[in-house]
Prior knowledge:
Blueprint: H1 2-12, H2 23-50, H3 56-84, H4 86-93, E1 100-102, E2 106-110, H5 115-123, H6 130-153, H7 158-174, H8 188-204, H9 211-224
Helix pairs in contact: 2-3, 2-6, 2-9, 3-4, 3-5, 3-7, 3-8, 5-6, 7-8
Amino acid sequence: xxxLGVLVFPLMFSFKHQNSSTATEEFCRLFVLRNISGxxxxxxxxxxxxxxxxxxxxxxxxxxGQYREMRRDYxxxxxxxxxxxxxxxxxxxxxxxxxxIEMEISSQPFPPQGFQVIEEAxxxxxxxxxxxxxxxxxxxxxxxxxxxxHYTTINIEQNKIQDALKLQIIRIMCLTLNGYDxxxxxxxxxxxxxxxxxxxxxxxxxxIKQDKELSEEAAQLVKTL
Length: 225
């Protein structure tokens, strides 16, 4: 915990270099859209693997590889999804393996759904179920298609990105490090590293001196969409 504090709390002071241009907002948008495209691609590949003629062991290993890639893409943009789409994140994408209730929407509990259901089906040999995986891949694919379209036009403000990054630091320390969303595979430290790397990228955009380099990196992101 102390090590994480040494790494991330000094980063918060980088916000004193306020970039007055729209570089931060547009870089953030492109970064998020790029990663969502990556997640969609891994979900589609996972669906193809499910339909392949591989035996169960090889199929499971291939699916685990795709899962880890999409988890990296997700953890890098978790700060944004949790801030701008908290309902989708909690109920459809990365919520815990327990039924959840939102009384303003329905008195009926929402069943577990998303990454953690997939994790259980992939990493717990006693619960490996390709039918469950097919269902979850399709549900996640639908949700990320929606988010990609939504984030393409959403109004993104620099101060809100700042708030989202600060909240992500707290989320890493209180949840991710404690294995909140890695209850089965125990890969929370690896996922913390992904989340911290993305924090550093976004925080760097608050320094106006980084504008030229940022524009070049943004141009590269555009090519991946």
